[in-house]
Amino acid sequence: MKKTYSFLVIALLLTAMVACKKDKDEDNNPNDELVSTWELESTATSWVPQTFYEPGNGNLLIFKVDSYTSIYKNQIVQQGSYTSAPDNTVEDNTCMTNLKDIYTRSITFVYDSPGSPYKRFYYVADNKLYLISGCNANDAHAESVYRRVNPSDMN
Q1: CA angle at 105 for the pair 94 and 41, rounded to the nearest 5°
Q2: Is residue 52 one of the residues assigned to a domain?
Q3: Is residue 31 part of a domain?
Q4: Phi and psi for 6 in degrees, rounded to 5?
Q5: Number of domains the chain contains
Q6: Which keywords annotate this record (predicted)?
Q7: Which domain holds residue 46?
Q8: pTM for the whole thing?
Q9: Where are the alpha helices (DSSP H) in the chain?
Q10: Which of 65, 55, 57, 68 is nearest to 131 (CA)?
Q11: Collapsing DSSP states into helix, strand and coil, what is residue 141?
């Protein structure tokens, strides 16, 4: 009887521990996938063909939980706050089609200079950050791809 009672108590405790454990997805901040150091891998615009950048090129985009820093050739060129949100207006904003299922979020960059705030659409896949902005028909669109500098830190 003692063995049965002990078994039931252990089973009950294990069940309580599993049932009371927070779901990992509940704690996810939507910015979590952005928080990292990203290095520029390639750029393209509707006027300039795709340009590729070697690792160690000094062009970084660093996201913290609520701030970012943009570095060009190892010099800080922009920093400020940002917000990230679900956004299904990528096709309206870029004047391009077949993007709404890929670029499902936008980042609004806020900084102290003309043109602030600035919105870009993004997605993250395979340790790469894909950004797109601008209307192809009006002011040329711009696409950038960044690679995560330390993907092993994300595990």
Answers
A1: 75
A2: yes
A3: yes
A4: -60, -40
A5: 1
A6: Signal
A7: 24-154
A8: 0.75
A9: 2-20, 90-94
A10: 68
A11: coil
Q: How many CB atoms lie within 10 A of CB 19?
A: 7
pLDDT, tens digit, 9 for 90 and up, residues 90-137:
998 888 889 989 999 999 888 766 665 678 999 999 999 999 998 866
Q: Which residue has the tokens 């800080």?
A: 76
Mind listing the pLDDT tens digit for each residue in 64-101? 998 999 999 999 999 999 999 999 999 988 888 899 89
Beta strands in the chain (DSSP E): 36-45, 51-52, 60-63, 67-72, 75-86, 105-110, 118-125, 128-133, 142-148
132/119 Cα distance (integer angstroms): 9
Q: Half-sphere exposure of residue 125, counting CA atoms within 13 Å on the CB side?
A: 7
The answer to whether 100 and 91 have CB atoms below 8 angstroms apart is yes
